[in-house]
Structure formats: structure tokens, C-alpha cells
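Q: Given only this backbone (228 positions), what sequence would you predict?
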């Protein structure tokens, strides 16, 4: 009933996670003004975009895109902070669903039949209580209909945080850290690999290397953001 919703909004007002403006009944997590100004990459319209260029060595990688740019000191970085550090995993589902809705008409998700979120290290998972990429993946799944599999790939080595590392250190830090647990699940599939922030592409590279041990797979890549 509307009066119950109005009462909840009065007692527990919701605010835009970007600009802190109070949200209306129809807005979720981000106000319409901030949503319109979201720094979208539009990579889906550019096959040889800056993210895809990290993976050109592999013909099995079909396409890659990021939804919006991540500026470390920019106001939209707050969305990622809420998702990863402030215990708001539902932001990932919302943004995954939003991105998939906008990108679906471009054909970016055509042929995808399995969605795999990048596995989180055990240390980070126990500290955070969830893998933010799982939530992004499930948001995408709600729009495109492909299944999500969070179990077929395992992170076998816990790495230190990538945040303060340079490009070379990031690559060394991610060597041989993933292992495919169930190869039969992946054979002959077109996989959508999902991550939250792409910087150098080192983590994605490591995960792709593990997946390509399985024959007859194709991979597309979706990251919520591309670091600038």
C-alpha cells in the first residue's frame, strides 16, 4: 500500500549513492540526474575498444565491454565503494541489470549461454561476506536469461590487493591463480566473464588463461567499470 511506502520513506529516507540527493519512490541507488550523467564508455559500439585490446592475442575472446569509466577520485567511484566496501551488494545486482538492459539492444550478449563471475579470494570473501561480481552477474542474468555458474572456476591462490600495484606487479600477482573445477560445464559454451573493475586486465587475463585449457570455448568479457 502506498501509505506504507510513504511512511517507510519518511522514517528511512534513501539517498543517491553518488550525490546524496534524496531518492524518489521510483529511483534506486542513484538519482535520475546522476544516472543521465553516468560516464558510460559505449565500448559495445566499438569492437576494437580499449578493453578489448588487452585480449586481442586470443581468437577465442569474441568481444569485451565496460559499462562506465572509473575515475579513482570521481564521484561515480562511490558506487563501487558501496558495492565492495560498504556492504551494499545489491548495488551490483542493480547496476548489472541496468547495464544489461542498456547493452542488450546492441547485440553484445547475443549467443551467451553461461555467465561466470571472477572468483574472489578466500581472504577477501571471508572479510566482505560476498563476492560483488556474483551480484553483477546475477543482475545481468535477470535480463539476458543465461545461467550464472560461480563454482566451475576456483581461485587457488590468494593474492594481495591490486589497488596499490603498478602494471608489472599486477601481472605477476595474478599468474596461475585460477583453476577450472568442472571442464564439462564449459565445453562448447560461449562464456560471459564478469568483473567489477578492469585496470590492466591482469586478473581477467589469468582467468581466461585457465578457461582456455578447456576445448571449444568462446569468451566475452563484461566489466562494470574501466579504470582511467
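A: Predicted residues:
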Amino acid at each position: 500500500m502506498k501509505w506504507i511506502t510513504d511512511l517507510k520513506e519518511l522514517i528511512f529516507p534513501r539517498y543517491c549513492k553518488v550525490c546524496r540527493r534524496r531518492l524518489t519512490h521510483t529511483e534506486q541507488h542513484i538519482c535520475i540526474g546522476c544516472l543521465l550523467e553516468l560516464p558510460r564508455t559505449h565500448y559495445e559500439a566499438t569492437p576494437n575498444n580499449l578493453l578489448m585490446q588487452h585480449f586481442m592475442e586470443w581468437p577465442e575472446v569474441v568481444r569485451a565491454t565496460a559499462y562506465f569509466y572509473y575515475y579513482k577520485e570521481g564521484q561515480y567511484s562511490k558506487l563501487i565503494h558501496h558495492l565492495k566496501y560498504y556492504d551494499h551488494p545489491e548495488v551490483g545486482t542493480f547496476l548489472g541489470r541496468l547495464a544489461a538492459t542498456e547493452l542488450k539492444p546492441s547485440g553484445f550478449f547475443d549467443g551467451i549461454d553461461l555467465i561466470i563471475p571472477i572468483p574472489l579470494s578466500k581472504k577477501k570473501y571471508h572479510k566482505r561476506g560476498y563476492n560483488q561480481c556474483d551480484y553483477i552477474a546475477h543482475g545481468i542474468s535477470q535480463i539476458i536469461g543465461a545461467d550464472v555458474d560461480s563454482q566451475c572456476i576456483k581461485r587457488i591462490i590468494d593474492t594481495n590487493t591490486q589497488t596499490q600495484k603498478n602494471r608489472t606487479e599486477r601481472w605477476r600477482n595474478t599468474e596461475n591463480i585460477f583453476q577450472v573445477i568442472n571442464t564439462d560445464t564449459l565445453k562448447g559454451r560461449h562464456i560471459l566473464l564478469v568483473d567489477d573493475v578492469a585496470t590492466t586486465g591482469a586478473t581477467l587475463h589469468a582467468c581466461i588463461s585457465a578457461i582456455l585449457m578447456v576445448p571449444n570455448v568462446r569468451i566475452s568479457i563484461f566489466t562494470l567499470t574501466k579504470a582511467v
